[in-house]
Amino acid sequence: MPSHRIETSSKSGEIGVVHLGLGAFHRAHQAVYLERYRQRTGDTRWGVCSANLRASIGLVDGLRAAGYRYHAAEYAGSESLTLREIGVIEETLFTGCDTEGNWGRDLEALLSRMASADTRIVTLTVTEKGYFLNPASGELRNDDPMIAADIAAPKQPRTAPGLLVEALARRREAGIAPFTVLSCDNMPDNGKRTRQAVVQLAEHRDPALASWIASDVAFPCSMVDRIVPAMTDADFERLATLGFTDPNAVVCEAFTQWVVEDHFPVGRPSWEAEGVEMVTDVAPFETMKLRMLNGSHSLLAYLGALAGIETVYDGVKHAKLRALLRRYMLEEAAPTLEMPEGIDLVTYADSLLDRFANDSLRHRLQQIAMDGSQKLPQRWLSGALARSRNGQPSPCVALGMAAWIRYTAGEDLQGSGYPVDDPLAKRFASLHQEHGSDSVALVAAFLAMDDVVPKGLAADKPFAQSVLTAYQALIQGGLDGALAPLERSL
Ligand code: NAI
Ligand code: CS2
Question: What is the pTM of this model?
Fold first, then answer.
């Protein structure tokens, strides 16, 4: 039984932050930092209105029923648990589609909150797909039905970019200074990409509004890091053994990091004392984390899921997979990074493997495997492209791509099926149906998807050949067969 300590929440306060994407990570990361800030300073100006734009109306109403209080269970390992009561969320709203097909139950309430002068920061965790950007080019996907709906009806927005445009339009019309927009999603240059989505959507509505947003609204970038798996029944049961039956609880590791570009024209909490690192340039930290942590996560997710492995913890116990992750991090990801003085990437890589081996987290590989079309460009492909331009091979990424292509068939190597959770899942299914057992055509078709794979990388014939060779090894020899060619240094 782990030893555990309980941190209770402080009194309630005013709302200064609106969050879009009320999910596990927001509750275990941003909300925890804001709770710790409020407890340390007594400053009650930075309470949170947290909204869901899609599913999870249950979480919105569940938190309301619980008086907006929940627990973050922070595990440093099986022997150390901190149960932190969080009370900084003051309101929860739902603007998605309910079970009767009605959209936007709390839309006006949310827009009013975002348009209020009291709201000075809007944060987001809407997943990489929630920005509706072409993963390779970063351009807004105007052809997406949700974006098309927001273009047609801008005052009843359904997407995160749509909400931001309408709220900013209201503030501009009322002469209220804009809030700062802070993306906390795993995207490269997440502030710049959020700005791109919002400005390009605003262009459809009013070029003058778009120009004002482009010139007057701050979109700082941030790197966020805390492993927060989706809750499982076992997680709830474990908390219940400690006397906690909190249906809104989240489980996470003790480690947490937040590196934020310090550009908040209308103010922010002085959250540095909570460990938030305020910097002028987030990019090196963001690229390091996306390529080394998230790139390893995805490598493990696809190879492990195909081999029937359930969690990250189970995967890094597999000696050859652990060795592959370390080789990928040190030989393919680290050489593409330009880090400030004092950052030791070998130490960082080993710290990541230790974090992955946290026996208190049941981080399912299938959760990490979702949305690969939205994740792999920044996790693997941008680094592999940089290496390709230098004439350097990326055999680990090639193996990862082969595993991802095979994963998108929706069946593991033992023949067990699973849903492929990805905005492009229908396209993948048709490619598998069209090319079937013709691995040469199938791999070529996936590499030709230029909204996912950079054209320069797809055109790298040695890389394309290495993906095909890895794919064929995987099909013919399973996980061991696919790993064998890399084993010289695993
Ligand atoms: P979650 O599944 O608990 O929450 C996802 C949230 O995104 C929900 O509120 C959902 O309604 C919303 N969403 C999904 N698709 C959307 C769309 N198209 N438009 C608007 N909202 C949409 O997932 P979780 O764990 O909160 O992760 C969310 C994001 O946070 C991740 O995609 C990642 O970018 C970031 N993150 C997650 C970490 C983790 O370990 N869970 C760690 C670091 C970053
Ligand atoms: C994971 C991330 O689900 C995934 O794609 O790789 O959510 C990962 O847990 C976080 O980025 C860790 O900070």
Answer: 0.96
